[in-house]
Amino acid sequence: MVANLLQIGGASAVVFTALLFVRACVHKINDFVAFTGFVEDYKLVPARLASAFGAMIVAGEAFIVIGSLLPWTRPAAMMIAAALLVIYAVGIAINLMRGRGRIECGCGGPAQAISPALILRNVVLGVIALFGLAAANEAFAFIDLLAAFLASLAFFGVYLLAEQIIANFTVIRLGRQQQQ
To answer: What is the per-residue pLDDT across 98-146, written as a single tens digit (0 to 9) for each?
Structure first.
């Protein structure tokens, strides 16, 4: 029973991570020029490499989505997801330490400047992706897959609400800074 719950939880983490990266990848592909501008704004790679670096990010995110579907590629997809999320957190942290907190995160959700909350969010999302390894090589009964899918949809809805709250607080914080 406990092993089954762990596996369903892991499967939910896989589906959630796939949904997260579908959203992010579609956002980046739909406006690749703007995304390349976000990459350039972080000033972590030379401006002339921003487009190529952006394409590598999109390819990695696409692999995560596709790799999540297959049991033999799922472990790599979840590890790459966790690694990308930590890399994103490090990029945000570097820019915050540089005093560059007005950069658009380019995350794929509501427009928001980078903040410490996004670092924490990305670390938590990375841990969730690693939890997906609990279901990495599993084949599931239909009812288990349905439970995992419904749980991940509910969690994704909570994630979207939390992301909007973070975006709202960032706008309020930046507004206060402008008034001072």
So the answer is: 999 889 888 877 778 898 989 999 999 999 999 998 876 666 677 877 8
DSSP letters spanning 46-100 = -GGGHHHHHHHHHHHHHHHHHHHHSTTTHHHHHHHHHHHHHHHHHHHHHHHHTT-
Q: Specify whether the CB–CB gap between 140 and 106 falls below 8 A.
A: no
| Phi, psi of 114, deg, nearest 5 | -65, 150
Cβ-based neighbours of 86, under 8 Å, separated by 6 or more: 122, 123, 126
Residue 101 contacts residue 114 (beta carbons within 8 Å)? yes
Residue 140, token pair as written in the block: 């599931």
pLDDT for residue 179: 66
Closest CA to 12 of 52, 58, 64, 68: 68
As a whole number of angstroms, the distance between CA 144 and CA 116 comes to 36
